[in-house]
Write a structure and sequence with these properties.
By secondary structure, this protein is of the alpha+beta class. It contains three helices and seven strands. It has two domains: 119 residues, no CATH class; 45 residues. Helix 2 runs parallel beside helix 3. It is globular, with a radius of gyration of 45 Å. It starts with a strand and ends with a helix.
Length: 202
């Protein structure tokens, strides 16, 4: 049976072994010369399960550079999320189907990896869409409120008060016109007197 071995530098290869639940960690130790391997995460993959075996401790410089897929189910409670947990040395990805380990090649893992991230991206895109809709709604409310504020400013603002003052000025202007009319009347009377005087001279 073949399974995926991911080197500390991120390179992937396939290793052969007659893996069983009893001997799987022993075979991994023999392949890598690393003493302690643990089953860390698992993912449901169709009617199968994909499991990750790795090391939680190691020497500086032996950190594994591969990013695991998100949403792995933790097999140890103290673990971080599968896509953020720091691991050391080589990682093994194995597939279990019908309670038996079965072939899991690099290409198979590549497809599984892509599908995991596509599901994650879909969730992320939905969140972004919701955020975008909320932002648009907020903008619409802002624009609407801005327009309403403009109407309120028109009702209560200085512009209307100025208009009222203008009406008062118009009334004052009317008084001035009346004064002009009085002057005109006096002028007219004066002209009539002059006309009478002219008639008397003749």
């Amino acid at each position: 049976m073949k399974t995926v071995q991911i080197k500390a530098d991120g390179a992937m290869t396939e290793v052969y072994g007659e893996f069983t639940k009893k001997n799987i960690r022993k075979l991994m130790r023999e392949i890598t010369n690393v003493k302690k391997y643990e089953c860390l995460y698992e993912w449901t993959y169709g009617d199968a399960v994909v499991q990750c075996y790795g090391c939680l401790v190691g020497k500086a410089g032996k950190e594994n550079k591969h990013d695991l897929p998100p949403s792995g189910v933790k097999k140890i409670e103290t673990l971080d999320n599968s896509d953020t947990q720091l691991l050391f040395n080589d990682i093994f990805m194995v597939k279990i189907q019908s309670n038996k380990y079965c072939d899991f090649l690099v290409d198979d893992y590549g497809l599984f990896y892509t599908l995991c991230f596509e599901g994650f991206d879909d969730c992320y895109s939905d969140d972004e869409s919701d955020i975008s809709d909320d932002d648009t709604g907020s903008l619409d409310k802002f624009i609407l409120n801005d327009g309403v504020d403009g109407v309120d400013d028109g009702d209560d603002g200085d512009g209307v008060d100025d208009g009222v003052d203008g009406d008062d000025d118009g009334i004052d202007g009317g008084d001035s016109i009346n004064s002009d009319d009085s002057c005109t009347t006096e002028s007219a009377s004066y002209s009539d007197d002059e006309l009478d005087e002219d008639i008397n001279n003749y």
